[in-house]
Amino acid sequence: MKPVDAPQRALSFGDTPPLSLPMRFFLTAPLFAALAAGFLAWQGEPALLTRWSPLTLAITHLLVLGCLSMTMIGALLQILPVVAGIAVPRAGRVGAAVHLCLCAGTLALAAAFWQGSPVLFRVAMALLLAGLLLFTGACTVAMWQPHRPGSDAVMAGIRLALAALVVTMTLGGMLASVFAWPGLIQLPLQRLTGLHAMWGMLGWVGLLVIAIAFQVVPMFMLTEPYPRHLTGAYATAMFLLLVAASLSSGWTGRGELLHQACVVLLAAGYALFAGVTLAMLARRKRPRADPATLYWRTAMVSLLAAMAVGLTVPLAAGVLLICGFALSAICGMLYKIVPFLTWYRLQDMRAVSGRKPPNVNQLLSERHAQWQYGAHLIGLLLLLAACYQPALVRPAAALMCAACLALWLNLTSVFSKS
After folding, report:
1. Coiled coil located at which positions (predicted)?
2. Distance CA 178, CA 81 (A)
3. CATH number for 365
């Protein structure tokens, strides 16, 4: 029986934005990931000595802002009208401005970490805060509109992910201000950095991946809908655990025990989502796994591994969360969404061109996607090994860079057919 809270599979394209709006984000994201991997290959072992290294922070923000957030913002601008039936006001202008601010701000922030430049930190703060505030403001206005029945679970996750983004932005702005005006502001950097990373990866990225999965996995992977215990109050419970873990961080005595309990429950909650998704993918209607399905399986296994590693090996946990979980889920999502949107555009233009569009599965070369996935997987495994054997960092980064460029070429080849 279908759970009452399961998100619908039917989509509404009445208010869908122009294809160029999400595609500018989707095609930019792999280039930032390739830039991060290339920078890591250039710098080599020093970039993995500690997660607090300026080189590591530069690479991390190229990935998290330039690739992960870039894709998530593009996906939201597409999903809100199509899935929920609500329109983002002035979506075209908002999207163009946010894309410009995000690109320039991410590059400025990475350069600021690399060079240790207060001026660049100020420029990055202005650009990133302006772009992200414009995006969250536009989405907030849009979500005052009533959404379509059946999209409750997706919308609940999106709202909480956007709230997590605001918290992440606030913490990031506080941290950047310390570097932008040295000696003027004194803050507990290590504690705030940990909270910033937690809200960014588990809140903004994690909750949004879950919300999108509620729609994307059943629709494109041909699985059953997610069970009610995940599409109900699950996202709210995870958000409240993030709040509790944040408020209790730095406490001692019984407060520290409360903090550890919240962290354990968070890990168990994300592991539950990963386990359920893997079980659904194992029972999908098509037994042969295409590259997108392989990517989602890799993402879920990486999420389980990251939750198991936890605080014991933070560098490996970061690699698993960013490159294993988030980047893999994004690749799997793009390999389904981009061909589908391109096919829909061709179908819409059929009345003008008079030509029957190819089947959606014919727009993307599965052989090329399989090779790209293989390069990504080997690069990910080498990057994990490099956390323990730093001499492997350059070949791992070079392979990841090649995989990201191949992803860009594959997506570009699909978009060029529109």
Report:
1. none
2. 39
3. 1.20.210.10
